[in-house]
Amino acid sequence: MARLLERYKQQVVQQLIEKFKYKNELSVPRLQKIVVNMGIGRAAENKKLIEEGTKHLSVIAGQKPVVTKAKKAISGFKLRKGQDIGCKVTLRGKRMYEFLDRLISIVLPRIRDFRGLSTKAFDGRGNYTVGLTEQIVFPEISVDTVEFIQGMDITLVITGNSNEQSRELLRLLGMPFRSE
Question: Which of 58, 73, 126, 160 could form a disulfide with 29 if both were Cys (CB 3.0 to 4.6 A apart)?
């Protein structure tokens, strides 16, 4: 079993029940899914960027990404409807907890000048989004093979109904929030 999932079941659930006075274990907020999105804006000029982006994302996430397409044409960006513009992966279950564990313990400390994550990145419904500026902070990616540096968004979808409950869940799981 994933280390973080075990910790959630044994410690975090009980701590959240005590703090928020839940009557049932099923009402405790939990991670539903993690979506890793890599928007590759320069893919309009160079198709090779999409291939490299999907290759890197599949190595990072451990499963094959889906190529995202433009919903509508925007002439200012030289974009046509249906054109490939990025890729994304949705992680669930054991793979999701293993990815989050790697993110917290390995990837975030490798970011240059990292002082903690902002607590203001919640969306009002309890979901949290982290933006990374480069994919080379993941140890699976060899710096020598990277032709272009690409950022990504990591969205944690949580089954809670408030930011406070989700923040406490992520804090108990070990997410390094900045003390503001």
Answer: 160
